[in-house]
From TrEMBL:
Coiled coil: none annotated. The lineage of its organism: Bacteria, Bacillati, Actinomycetota, Actinomycetes, Mycobacteriales. One of its GO terms (cellular component) is membrane. PANTHER family: D-METHIONINE-BINDING LIPOPROTEIN METQ, LIPOPROTEIN. Its main location: membrane. Keywords: Lipoprotein, Membrane, Palmitate, Signal. It comes from Corynebacterium liangguodongii. It is a lipid-anchor. InterPro entries: Lipoprotein_NlpA. It is found in: Membrane. This is Methionine ABC transporter substrate-binding protein. It holds the Pfam family Lipoprotein_9.
Length: 298
């Protein structure tokens, strides 16, 4: 099935997406994922903000070959996707990293858990007209100010040797500007809205820009002068995952979807979508949920 046929499928599902979470506490007890029809097809409803990417077209077709009718429900914003899952409007979702999921659980009191890992996208530093860190000392570096990206952005600068944190930082995985030792650092951090980081870059200032805004601003990822190590402990909170309700994470069909996402054909398409920046991650489910629990406590 080509991408336009998948879009036709998700467009129909999109009608339902606009009404998700509208009923609040009136929703019934969520059903077990994976109803099977008379033809032996198992239907799974999955929510994402990335339905238009080529990897999802490949994923859809491979799932169909495994007897799984994947009903892709597209969302234009992150906020409703977890709530739709918690209320039983979805069987599973894939759009977020572990830290975002932890923040949702902690703020909502819900208990969504991880079915499996997918990939991680390094976060990078860009400086227009420069190909290295040479000459960056004394510069003001724009970093995104949202909770999901700010701590990681600061750690990019720590790994680059440009910033030092003060002694006794409460949470070195997600530091804040208050944790930066300004006298010992080589650059000054300037938090801005994530959407403004490309503007800082185009004005000639160094900036840490995530992939969403790189793509929208037409900035090529290979222009980065430094990026974080996706295999470092500091990067663990930013592993992207499949999430489901706690009672469903061992569901056979949902776990099959994780396997399918790691099929070489999906990985290749994901590489194309991310312009080579995506790094495949295969981590044990129990280990991933331990990371989630630790982040929730923090």
């Amino acid at each position: 099935m080509h991408l336009n046929r998948v879009i036709a499928t998700i467009a129909a599902a999109g009608l339902a997406a606009t009404s998700l979470v509208a009923c609040g506490g009136e929703s019934a007890e969520p059903a077990t994922p994976g109803s099977t029809d008379a033809n032996g097809q198992t239907t799974i409803k999955i929510g994402t903000t990335e339905a238009d990417q080529q990897a999802w077209s490949v994923f859809h077709d491979l799932a169909a070959e495994q007897g799984i009718n994947l009903e892709i429900v597209p969302f234009s914003d992150y906020a409703p996707v977890n709530e739709a899952l918690a209320q039983g409007e979805l069987d599973v979702n894939k759009f977020q990293h572990i830290k975002y999921l932890a923040e949702y659980n902690a703020s909502s009191g819900k208990d969504l858990r991880i079915v499996g890992s997918t990939e991680i996208v390094p976060l990078a530093l860009f400086w227009k007209g420069h190909t290295s860190l040479d000459g960056i000392e004394g510069q003001e570096v724009a970093v995104p100010n949202d909770p999901s990206n700010q701590g990681r952005a600061i750690n990019v600068l720590v790994q680059a040797g440009l910033v030092k944190l003060t002694d006794g930082v409460a949470d070195p995985l997600t530091p804040t500007p208050a944790d930066v030792d300004k006298k010992a650092s080589k650059v000054t951090i300037v938090p801005v809205d994530a959407s403004q980081t490309p503007a800082a870059y185009n004005e000639g200032r160094p900036a840490i820009i995530n992939n969403t805004w790189l793509d929208r601003a037409g900035i090529e990822p290979d222009l980065a002068i430094f990026e974080d190590d996706p295999n470092s402990p500091e990067a663990e909170p930013y592993i992207n995952v499949f999430a489901a309700r706690a009672g469903d994470i061992d569901n056979e069909t949902l776990n099959k979807l994780v396997e399918i996402w790691h099929d070489p054909k999906v990985i290749e398409a994901n590489e194309q979508d991310s312009k080579g920046t995506s790094v495949e991650v295969t981590r044990d489910k129990a280990e991933l949920n331990d990371i989630l629990t630790k982040l929730e406590k923090k």
